[in-house]
Amino acid sequence: MKKLAIIITALAALAACSGKRLTEDDVRAVMGSVEASVKRHDANSLVAHFAPNAMIMVSMPGTSGLSRMSVGEYKTMLEGLWKVQLHSSYEVSNREVALSSNGRSATARDIAKEVVLLPGERMESLSKQKAEIALVDGVPRIISLTSEVESLTATPTTAKN
User: Fold this and answer.
1) All domains of the chain, ordered by start, with CATH?
2) What band does 10 get if pLDDT is binned at 50, 70 and 90?
3) Residue 76 and residue 8: Cα distance in Å, rounded?
4) Rounded CA gap, 74 and 69, in Å?
5) Measuring CA to CA, which of 7, 62, 100, 119 is 20 to 30 A from 86?
6) Could you tell me if 127 and 150 are in contact, meaning their C-beta atoms sit under 8 angstroms apart?
7) In terms of pTM, does the model score above 0.85?
């Protein structure tokens, strides 16, 4: 009888875990938190929303293919850029969320506009972003992020005397 109770408890726990589904609100909350982390230049908070083995892919105008990075490489790149920035702005628009039919994953797409002031240069980019989000140990995490930079303009700045 004790074995039967253990089996029933295990099956109930499995059913409860397998019944968890992503919602659009879950996805929007993750993406909103990622956006806020970027605006605060908080790399630790940002990468906390990624699965440990997530892949980040970026394409730039004038290059062929996608540049691939691990979560750690992405964090290092952002921290390096944020250290030399004088000012930046990051705005996201046109966010669309599509949930999978099984409720275990979703795709979020949006447009990101970023303006970065570096020593001697102002850079502005417009990117199409696509994040794949899945339940990882029951928690919504980004498993893949693709950013296709559609336009990138760099304008020299001059120091004011």
Assistant:
1) 21-156 (3.10.450.50)
2) very low
3) 47
4) 6
5) 62
6) yes
7) no
How does DSSP assign 8-56, residue by residue?
Answer: HHHHHHHHHHHT----HHHHHHHHHHHHHHHHHT-HHHHHTTEEEEEEE
Output the pLDDT for position 141: 97
Provide the pLDDT for residue 3: 52
Contact (Cβ atoms closer than 8 angstroms) between residue 30 and residue 142:
yes
In tens, the pLDDT along 28-44 reads: 999 999 999 999 999 99
Which two structure tokens, joined as six digits, stand for 132? Answer: 């794949």
Match 């230049």 to its residue by tokens.
Answer: 41
- Residues 76 and 79: their CA atoms lie apart, in Å, by 5
Reported as a single tens digit per residue, the pLDDT across 60-104 is 877 777 889 999 999 999 999 899 888 899 999 999 999 999 999
Residue corresponding to tokens 């009888």: 1
**Listing from the earlier edge strand, what are the strands of the sheet with 105-118?**
67-70, 50-59, 139-156, 121-136, 105-118, 87-99
